[in-house]
From TrEMBL:
<dbReference type="InterPro" id="IPR027275">
    <property type="entry name" value="PRC-brl_dom"/>
</dbReference>
<dbReference type="InterPro" id="IPR011033">
    <property type="entry name" value="PRC_barrel-like_sf"/>
</dbReference>
<dbReference type="Pfam" id="PF05239">
    <property type="entry name" value="PRC"/>
</dbReference>
<dbReference type="GO" id="GO:0019684">
    <property type="term" value="P:photosynthesis, light reaction"/>
</dbReference>
<dbReference type="GO" id="GO:0030077">
    <property type="term" value="C:plasma membrane light-harvesting complex"/>
</dbReference>
<feature type="domain" description="PRC-barrel">
    <location>
        <begin position="5"/>
        <end position="76"/>
    </location>
</feature>
<feature type="domain" description="PRC-barrel">
    <location>
        <begin position="165"/>
        <end position="224"/>
    </location>
</feature>
<protein>
    <submittedName>
        <fullName>PRC-barrel domain-containing protein</fullName>
    </submittedName>
</protein>
<dbReference type="InterPro" id="IPR014747">
    <property type="entry name" value="Bac_photo_RC_H_C"/>
</dbReference>
């Protein structure tokens, strides 16, 4: 199952003893393209502050009631997982959060979540020496992302007013309208790219694994696909379920190596 980033922003974050607030933003790392923190809107009780929660601190997500349940108490999160509104994460702060709440140190280990495949793998489970068949992620292009990750805001690259622009081999393809997130790993699986200004194919799915380069200042994302290929490729209908059949068509059309192989 894939979550829409915009849909998650309507969810409430519920601690074991009360509501923290709605999801305001999602922070991802630009190395492995995975959501690392949910940001709660706490302006009513913590003005000028932001509260963050790791997906490894999530107990369950109720999609019917639009509630994300976390494992900790509201006061503990408020006292220990709060940053200034414009404050960026430091390595020391991430280590501190991990030590305080038992959140997985995703940066320490060879897998997507450090020594684990998903944020909800039991902590007592031994570190895997090899990933089971069918779960391996595609290699990261270090020439694009570099060896060190940086946490970035989903809100800064998707939407009507702030968005990344996707460029192909022969010009602009479209802008990032929304993002699809894997519900088990929290990896960003696809950008939903609005191509209506440049193509009759109104929306398409583009994987971040296909990116060749990124200009984070101007929010320009470059891939090695031509506009003609996008024009002929599978269209993504709004709110459509992303089935394996659709994914196979996309990867086949764009001649990309499927991530599930």
């Amino acid at each position: 199952m894939l979550y829409l980033a915009s849909a998650l922003e309507n969810y409430n974050i519920q601690a074991v003893d009360g509501e923290l607030g709605k999801v305001k933003d999602l922070y991802f790392d630009d190395n492995k393209w995975t959501i690392r923190y949910l940001v709660a809107d706490t302006r009513k009780w913590l003005p000028g502050k932001k509260v963050v929660v790791s997906p490894s601190g999530v107990e369950m997500i109720n999609t019917e009631e639009k509630v994300i349940h976390v494992k900790n108490k509201k006061e503990d999160i408020r006292d220990n997982a709060t940053l200034e509104e414009k404050q960026e994460f430091s390595y020391d702060k991430e280590v501190e959060l991990s030590d305080t709440f038992g959140w997985k140190q995703y940066w320490s280990g060879e897998f997507l979540w450090g020594g684990y495949l998903t944020p909800l793998d039991p902590m007592e489970e031994p570190v895997r020496t090899a990933e089971p068949a069918g779960t391996e992620e595609p290699p990261i292009n270090d020439n694009v992302h570099g060896s060190n990750h940086k946490l970035r805001s989903i809100e800064n690259i998707k939407g009507e007013f702030q968005h990344g622009v996707v460029h192909g081999d022969n010009g602009k393809i479209g802008y990032i309208k929304d993002i699809l997130i894997d519900d088990e790993t929290w990896r960003i699986r696809y950008f939903i790219v609005d191509t209506s200004e440049w193509s009759t194919n109104v929306r398409v799915l583009i994987s971040p694994d296909w990116l060749q380069s990124i200009d984070w200042v101007d929010k320009d994302f470059y891939i090695d696909l031509k506009l003609e290929s996008i024009e002929e490729g599978p269209n993504y209908e709004k709110d459509r379920e992303v089935t394996k059949e659709l994914e196979e068509k996309i990867y086949e059309k764009y001649r990309k190596e499927p991530y599930w192989k």
